[in-house]
Amino acid sequence: MKRNSLEKNRLQCFWMVPLMIGILGWFPSQQIVAADDTPAAASYPANRISAVTPDYRAAVKGDTKITVAAPGLATVEASCWQAGPGYGSDSKITPQPVALDAQGSGSFVFPADAYPHGPINIKITGSRSDGTVADTCYLQLFNSGGVTWDAGLKDVPVPPPAAGLTLTYSDDFDTMPTISRTGAGTTYCSLKPDGTEFGDAVFADHEGKYDPFFQVETYLRIRMTHRPDLVDPMNWKRHATTGFLSSEREDGTGFHTGGGHDQYFECRMLYGAAPGTWPAFWTLSAKNYKGNPGPCNELDILESYMPSTDHYHVTPHEWGYTEGKAKGEFKPKVTAIGGGADLCQTFHTYGCLITQDVTSYYFDNVKVAEHPTLKYSWSDGNYFMINLAFQDRKDAYVNGDFTRYGGADDLWVDWVRVYEKK
């Protein structure tokens, strides 16, 4: 790394007074400027990959220089999921590991135009000098160039689990949906329909001060944002805002399936890996809403606990009664399914088929779990919810907390649809 003449003179002066210095590591490295005019890696957390340029969640196109800082690490490698037949495939951006300089700085070029258009995540893995992997960074970006691939519902076939069923609901999110806190007068409710809250982030209102919803092209983005000065309306001392969607409203109106017949729910989404984030796609039986809190069933089609990217959780619940059919949870290992992409490498589709006897769960149309159908999810019908929640779990902070990705994280929803037996 080059230093200017002033820095050279400073070093010479310090070298003449070794008793004052002791070791060279005393130097104020955060003042050193790297050759490409980005801050030296020593000003970033040790043994952790930090993206320096471009910004997290930036829009990119064409050949884009990715600069990273990872003091204490020796090399980084980068990959991005590539468009192609079937599931697509993992594609190395760096054919060989990129050697970092003495301060932990390095860069590589991302040829964005060769990769999928829209929301993408670049997976960057860093290793120590002995070759052991020390950290993985997921750089969320929006590729405004690139190759159009599998976006939107236009040409998506009926999924195999829904064969013989009729499409009764779909949202491609190619326009901004109407959203309100109670759902009154709009398509979606931005709070759990029973009026309760959960998690360590405030579910903010659409078009409010902290609006977390943004629509672009054929996607809906739900953004979680760290807000250290937030005044929590529930006085729970939460310091982040995020978003929630429900197809049923607080008064029990809105979309839900009918009871007593087969039904299939599915949603295609992509999210980031910020520690503590808790994206979910789930259902509640239709008679559970504000003022009507009777027994019901919850089906967690997807619960993802970041930064675990190789598996997610599927969990059925019996609320207000017990028949013993909702036993435990399932943890599908996604890297052993389909194309082998982890949860944050590319978009995935999460589905749930409810029949009278068996409820089955699907990941990219592959069955990953099943259990006996629960009482109210069959008899009452169900509504769906999509949210990016947060759990301030210290055990999730293996290498940094939620703020490691610039204090925000995005959930991109491509589409949601529901089929029923008619």
Task: Sum this structure up briefly.
With 422 residues, the chain is mostly beta strands. It has helices spanning 5-15, 18-21, 375-379; strands spanning 50-53, 59-60, 63-69, 75-82, 89-92, 98-99, 105-111, 118-127, 133-143, 166-171, 179-180, 188-189, 202-203, 213-216, 219-226, 240-242, 244-246, 263-271, 277-285, 296-303, 313-319, 348-354, 358-363, 366-372, 382-390, 408-420. It has 3 domains: 1-32, no CATH class; 45-143, Immunoglobulins (Immunoglobulin-like), CATH 2.60.40.10; 160-420, Jelly Rolls.
Could you please describe the fold and organization of this structure?
The protein has 422 residues and is mainly beta. It folds into 3 domains: 1-32, no CATH class; 45-143, Sandwich (Immunoglobulin-like), CATH 2.60.40; 160-420, Sandwich (Jelly Rolls). The chain is built from 3 helices and 26 strands. It has helices spanning 5-15, 18-21, 375-379, and strands spanning 50-53, 59-60, 63-69, 75-82, 89-92, 98-99, 105-111, 118-127, 133-143, 166-171, 179-180, 188-189, 202-203, 213-216, 219-226, 240-242, 244-246, 263-271, 277-285, 296-303, 313-319, 348-354, 358-363, 366-372, 382-390, 408-420. Strands 10, 13, 14, 15, 16, 18, 22, 23, 24 and 26 form a 10-stranded mixed sheet that branches. Strands 2, 4, 5, 6, 8 and 9 form a 6-stranded mixed sheet that branches. A hairpin with a 2-residue loop joins strand 14 and strand 15 (219-226). The radius of gyration is 24 Å and the shape is globular. 43% of the residues are buried. The model is unreliable at 1-39 (pLDDT under 50).
